[in-house]
Design goal:
Blueprint lengths: L2 H43 E11 L2 E8 L1 H7 L3 E6 L6 E5 L22 E3 L11 E5 L18 H6 L2 E5 L3 E14 L18 H9 L13 E7 L6 E14 L5
Parallel strand pairs: 4-5, 6-9
Antiparallel strand pairs: 1-2, 3-4, 3-7, 5-6, 7-8, 8-10, 9-10
């Protein structure tokens, strides 16, 4: 190998290393900007009082007010807020006319690999479907849906089973009852259960996927919400957490 060729190869390798390092730095900056934007959204739009708001059908609701008016002024595609007490999951909920837009945009439409938490475009935004699917990235930092994998531990699931969704009209309380890994081609993503209008065979299918690992077993009649994220088990796999509706009340007005 000639000296000139060695110089060219050395220069090319150095350039590749520099570009790779720059990409890592830029991505890290994006992550931090997105995290700061979501922290700000919580500070400005999500308000939790220490007092219990009300008891509906035997279920207690926390005293929470979400300023969806302000969130919608930033992005009209905001449909609500997802909150799981005791976890880092507390985010605006988005919905567009496809399932790609918010893979690389935050709720405020800032370009970021963190993306946003969003509901499937085929679902009703009031969560009245038999099965509603919510997507989020599996971030190494634990942000977004990076913490969902903890639900593979039954003890963690039992200690963090309450989940809330706040929309313009309703506060919805759910009970998380199982978590497992499924393929991307699972019927859970195809909405093939009684054309989405009823539960059909959904409860039995979920039981078969969970392999009997179900806590807080639902009644089989209430709407179900599924949280979905990527998993290290494979590119064609998803880790999902399922929750059943327990109670509903009108949205909290400002404190």
């Amino acid at each position: 190998m000639s000296a000139k060729l060695r110089i060219i190869l050395t220069f090319a390798l150095a350039l590749i290393l520099i570009l790779s390092a720059a990409k890592v730095v830029i991505t890290e900056i994006e992550y931090k900007k997105a995290a700061a934007a979501y922290d700000k959204s919580r500070e400005e739009n999500f308000f939790l009082s220490t007092t219990v708001s009300s008891c509906i059908s035997g279920e207690y609701f926390p005293n929470v007010y979400v300023d969806l008016y302000s969130l919608k002024s930033v992005n009209p595609e905001t449909i609500g807020w997802l909150w799981i007490p005791g976890t880092n999951i507390s985010y605006p909920l988005m919905q567009s006319d496809d399932n790609f837009k918010y893979l690389n945009r935050t709720y405020s439409l800032q370009k970021s690999s963190s993306g946003a938490i969003f509901i499937d475009y085929r679902n009703s935004p009031d969560f009245s479907d038999a099965l509603s699917v919510i997507y989020g990235h599996n971030m190494k930092s634990g942000d977004m849906f990076g913490g969902l994998k903890k639900y593979s531990d039954p003890l963690y699931l039992s200690e963090h089973s309450d989940m809330y969704i706040f929309t313009e009209k309703s506060s919805l309380k759910y009970k998380i009852f199982t978590a497992f890994i499924v393929g991307c081609d699972s019927p859970l993503f195809s909405f093939g259960f009684s054309e989405r209008t009823g539960l059909g065979d959904l409860p039995e299918y979920i039981k078969s996927c969970a392999g009997g690992s179900i806590l807080n077993e639902p009644d089989g009649k209430s709407p179900v919400v599924m949280l979905s994220t990527c998993t290290s088990a494979g590119r064609d796999k998803r880790f999902v957490v399922l929750a059943s509706l327990e109670a509903e009340k009108e949205s909290q007005s400002a404190f």
